[in-house]
Structure formats: C-alpha cells, structure tokens
Amino acid sequence: MEANQSPPRKRPRRDRNREKASFLNSAEAMKLDIWSEFPEDLFETVIARLPVAAIFRFRSVCRKWCSLVGSDNFSQQYSEVPQGMPWFYTITHENGNNNVAMYDPSLNKWHHPSVPLAPANIVMPVASAGGLVCLLDLSHRNFYICNPLTQSLKEIPPRSVQAWSRVSVGMVLNGRSSNEGYKVMWLRNDGNHEVYDSVQNMWSQPGEFPPSIKLPLALNFRSQPVAVGSTLYFMCSEPEGVLSYDVSTGIWIHFIIPLPLHLTDHTLAEFQGKIMLVGLLCKNAATCVCIWELQKMTLLWKEVDRMPNIWCLEFYGKHMRMTCLGNSGLLMLSLKAKRMNRLVMYNLVSKEWQKVPDCMLPCSRKKQWIACGTAFGPCPSASP
C-alpha cells in the first residue's frame, strides 16, 4: 500500500442493515407474487404427498389451507397416492381411566389426542378400513365409526338383535376409498350375523347361515377378522380353521386347517392378499413368537419367520401372554408376563423386528398399559 493512500472506509452498520432490509422486502414481495399465482390444484397434489404429520401442520397455517385439505378434490388426490405405513389406534388404561394413544411407526412416536373421540363407554376398537376405525362399547350393541386423525365421529344405528353376546366384527370398503362407502359385519357363535351398509345407513340380515357349517362356531375372539377385498376371514377354534364370508356375494366357506403344535395366543393377519398367522410357540420353558403363511394348495400353515433368539431369551421360564394390536402388513405385538410388558413391531414386508417405545402420557412418566387396539391407514380426508 502506498504511503499516501488511506485504507478503505467501512460502511456504517445502519447503511448495511438498510440495504439488507430492502433486499428482504423485495424478496418477500416476489414470493407473494409467485404464490398468489400458484395453481390450487398443484397445492393439493403436493400436499397429498406429504407425511401425515406435515399435512396437519399445513392445516394450522390458515383457514383457507385447512378447508383445502377437507375438499373433495384433495380427497381424490390423496386416494391416488400410494399410502405408507399404517398407524396404530390403541386404548390405554391408568387408574381406571381409558385414554386414546396413536402410534406413528414412520416417526417412532406416540400421539395423544387432547379431545376424547367418544363417550367414556367406548373402549374397544374392533376393526378398520380406509382410514376409519370401528368402535364397539362394552354392551356389544352400539357401534361408532371415527377418523382418529380428524376426530370426527359417527354413531351408526343400533343393530336389530339386542340380546347381549360377544361378537366378532369385520369391516370392508365398497370401493377404493371410504368416500365410496363401507360395510361393517358382526358375527356370533350361533351363526347370527348382520351387515351395516354406510350408503344405506342401515343393518341387514343377508340370508340364513348355511346348514353345512356346524354350529356353534367357537370363534376365536382374541383374533380380529382380516379383510382381503370384499371377503372377511374369521378364526375358529373347534374345529381348528378359518371361516370366510364374502360381503358382496354372501358366500360362506369353512376351511379346516390344523394349527401348529404348542401354539397359544394366535391371531390372523393379512399381507398382500395372503392370510398369515402369528402366535406364541411355547415348549417346555421356552417361548418364541412365530409367523406362518397359509398355503392355498395344501391348506397348511408354513412357518416363514420367528423372533430372534436373543430376544426370546428374555421370555424363558415366564408365563407369557400376547395380544396382536394390528394385523395388516405391520404387526404390533403386546407381550406381557409378571413384571414385564413389551411392545414389539414386525414388518411383514422387510421381515424386520423392532422394539416400540413405551407409551406414556405427555405429563407423566408412568408407562401406560395398552388394553386393545387396531391398525389403520391414516387418511385425513376419510369421513365417517
């Protein structure tokens, strides 16, 4: 630097901040111009491909965006997008109180709705289809349909058979989504059954139970029915097998299928149209969770996977009980013994086992005991 040349002067901070503010203002104005001209149908296309949690954050931005998610066009867009992992809708117990907890496996996170979905007498989620969950009260008479995400609820008309008895409940869609309607079916051990059609908003008794199938059925009420298309599959205990009913055609079929030896707490599951079986295999003091697939040609159960041995060592010598909380593609298993309560998830696609974090209320460190639950496909646009 030459001796008579002064160093460059630094501009005052005020001038620099003024220039920065003018640049940001012009950028904001440019963004407003761009977004004001953005086509609304593209908004719906983009939103429909967001994760479910992001969609609900989107709804909270403004009233217009909230109404956009509830529009018929968005429902159509969302139904055309391949859906991700199912969520789990569960009922938890603490000090005699029933609470709702939903588990999102994609985020490995529990959600606790702040507003009850229904009166306190609703304690059992029994079936699901198209983003909707069917709830049944303790009297086994009153049914409700809800969307757990939007907390919308509908009480369906009381069934005509009012006698108290335990029932097995299944649910199927009329078309590709719940917007085309759905059907709910209940079945008793004595063969009595009814089907509710949401389009007609009424129960019906579609014909007599076939005399070729022996009564009583000895239904396995621990196993929720599974749906493949319009057909529901119920698990029977005596004789061992599976009972199917096509809701569209009214055709019953009883498959006599012997169970694997030393099997307890078993339940049906469904994966890509195939009927699966999950249960505890107990022999001597050893216990293991196993997965079977039904072979259509031989009508026999073929083992396809089992829990890793290092996990099963924890169950050795204990009297274990298992409840399956979801039975479609992704299984959540509640494993209980004295002073032990484990939640495990099994992915039928990747054949991976994963431990589920404990369910605890936001303001409590006490672990919640999960009483019952079902899997459902999260769908913000599904309406009861």
Automatic annotation (TrEMBL):
SMART domains: FBOX. Residues 32-81 form the F-box domain. The keyword Kinase does not apply. Keywords: Repeat. SUPFAM superfamilies: F-box domain, Galactose oxidase, central domain. Gene3D superfamilies: 1.20.1280.50, Kelch-type beta propeller (2.120.10.80). InterPro entries: Beta-prop_At3g26010-like, F-box-like_dom_sf, F-box_dom, Gal_Oxase/kelch_b-propeller, Kelch-typ_b-propeller, SCF_F-box_component. Residues 1-22 are annotated as: Disordered. PANTHER family: BNACNNG10540D PROTEIN (PTHR31672), F-BOX DOMAIN-CONTAINING PROTEIN (PTHR31672:SF12). This is F-box domain-containing protein.
